[in-house]
Design brief:
With 568 residues, the protein is of the alpha/beta class. The protein is built from 20 helices and 16 strands. The strands form 5 sheets. A 5-stranded antiparallel sheet has the order 13-12-16-15-14, with helices on both faces. It has a 4-stranded parallel sheet with strand order 6-5-8-9, with helices on both faces.
Length: 568
Amino acid sequence: MSFIDFDAQKCDECFKCLRACPTKAISFSKNNRKIIEDLCINCGLCQMHCPQGALTIHLDVQHVKNAILAGKKVVGSIAPSFAGIFDLEHPGQMVGALKTLGFDKVEETARGAEIVSRAYEKTIGKGEKVNMITSCCPSSNYLIEKYFPKSTEYIIPVVSPMVAHGYDIKERYGSDVFTVFIGPCLAKKAEALDFPKSIDAVITFRELDEWLKEEKIELKGCSKDYFDCSSSRRGKAYPMGGSLWKNDLETRINPNYKYVHIDGIEDCKSFLESLEKGMLTGYCAELNICSSSCINGPHVPNDSKPIFERKDQLSQYVNVKKTDTKMSLPKGMNLIRTFKNTPVSQIAVNEHQVAEVLLEMGKYTQKDQLNCGACGYATCYDKAVAIVLGYSDIEMCLDRLRQKAESLQNIIFDSSPNAICILDSEMRIKAVNPSFNQIFNATKIRLTYWPIGAIVDDEIFEKLALSNDYRQSKKLYLESVDRTFFANVVKIQGGQAYVGIFTDITESENNREELEKVKEETLITCQEVIDKQMRVAQEIASLLGETTAETKVGLNKLKKLVLMDERK
């Protein structure tokens, strides 16, 4: 079951989650982002490192609220790391706050830790295994079962403190009570599903913090109360790691083992790799996936103190007063659990396909494989394998994108018809494109480090250097090449470099002058035609006037003759 949802809309493809993921259990493709359940160990490191909030965990707060509203007896088991993570004047204020929320009873999971520690002592005392590994951290258990199956036999077959405390609570208060574990760990949500008769719901410290804010409960304003059951100092110190060995187990139980505490995913993997190879024997190891152990779990409140302040605060809490190390514990409780080899299915990868992907990524030789890790994978080969398996996309390679961008820039720079020069802060040439050489450097000499003033005799560069502007533009005629340009000069890197772009507008300028000449000649011709037409019109008018008069006289004579004939 997935405990983390991926919101692709919020994802900005920074790949921080994938870099943090110890098993690369996140799939990135063009249109999809998802957790690969078969590979996931539920450590929550991806969600912890996501700056965009694209990864969210499934919340159980409403499940707990419903139990309270239904009138069930709700008992909280809170991880002792609360004392270092929350801002309290007294640890009892957390008890008061939880009871204000509706919890009937509140106890520390430290009690479960003491129960487990004593079970460990019995197993370690027998010394039946070459090596032994604690079972407190569910993520380390999932890591071993899926990725280091040979080491599964070394896990001490005892339930975790959370599960042990859940059993203990139900035994003391009744099997019908509703048990809630509260802590910083995401993996506990997955573990609780495997033990439905122990823990009914898991809420994280961040969930609790948001619930308190929703109810407007200020921790420092709560009255202090006391836990409903005592716990040991050893159990309280569990979140800092190594507390299991602080009672000097080496001399007290079994001196044949080397007792070590290992935290952080990389150190855990390194230790397990050595075990798998048979290079280590006689070790009894406490493993914690989270760096600095449970005090640095993945789902603490967003405004939590820095890790060393948390450690200091928790240490003060553990040592502030003596606790009941001889507390009575349940007898006959079944704490045994089994661990199974469930190795991740190794999908056969076609090496020919991987090689083709590497070539497509531009990785032609080993030297080309930068192994920068920007994509989230440690090596370019691992990235290529992920692409073949469909877990990643070839476009999600920073070096390949950089090469494409640089290639495109070079194409634009080299093929531009504009003359382009790049200058340093002292106005000396760093680079020019072919068009610049064609126009300004007919002899094809090397122009590097030449002052631009020796080529372009204009003050445009100096004016830009002395101004606060980042660009100067003007039309200029350069007599040296007998051409007219529209020049754009840009200041970049705060004046550490300049770029000059010269667009040749000589032809258009010549065409414009020719057009002006044609216009002028046309106007003169038009005026001459008009004048001539006016003279012709006047002459025609004059001729028409004379002809009309003569015609009128002739017609009148003809009219008189006609009238005279009619009278006869």
